[in-house]
Amino acid sequence: MFVLVKMKDAVPIPASELSKPRSLAVSNQIEKKYSNRVLLGTGLCVCLYEIEELGEGLIYPSDSAVHVRVTFSLVVFRPFIGEVITGSIHRSTPEGLWISLGFFQDIFVPPHFMQDGSEWDEEHQLWVWKSEHGDAMLDPAFGSPVRFRVTNTIFRPVKRPSKAPPAANADPTLVQQAGKRFVDRKNTPARTGQEQEQEDEPAFQVMASIKDDGLGLAIGGIVGIVCGIVF
């Protein structure tokens, strides 16, 4: 579930941190830059593991920071395909089930990876399992423990703004043009649900299954069934 990733970077140490021990100042800046950050194709950075090598500090013109070349290791969350993990039910949507590990909530179980007979209950807004003895439901808001198997990991590039806002001392004509564009944007139609969903997609997502034997909700120490449902 967790791996060590070796990194090399030029870490800027601001002037306010120069009075601290060198290793501590560098560690603080690495944690600030990388903790809770997704590295594309690598995983979610959790914390700094160790500093392996500190290079000399360099000062550049018009920059008060000292830039230090550092070799270090990070603890990164990236479960391997087929790994079985226990999390808790985070929320249910018509598209599927979301599971949380506390520090990571972008674990998704689509309907085809739920147990056969699972159906979405519109009234209760959760997934139910249809059995020959009738329906049995468990509210996923309770954060019930659930065991799942990782089926895939997905990385998505983060979209960044293509243009910076106009400068405060910009030419008045340019400011008027920017204001006109702002008014035009206010009059444009709202984004569709699909466009909003695309923007809200996580940079790192784990796809999972709770369909196989031994997977699903753990009730009273017994792994029972799935999707906010119990036998």
From TrEMBL:
Chief place of localization: nucleus
Keyword Nucleotidyltransferase appears in the UniProt entry: no
Gene Ontology BP, a term: transcription initiation at RNA polymerase III promoter
Compartment(s): Nucleus
Domain RNA polymerase Rpb7-like N-terminal: 9-63
Domain RNA polymerase III subunit Rpc25: 83-217
Pfam families: RNA_pol_Rbc25, SHS2_Rpb7-N
Protein's name in the database: RNA polymerase III subunit Rpc25 domain-containing protein
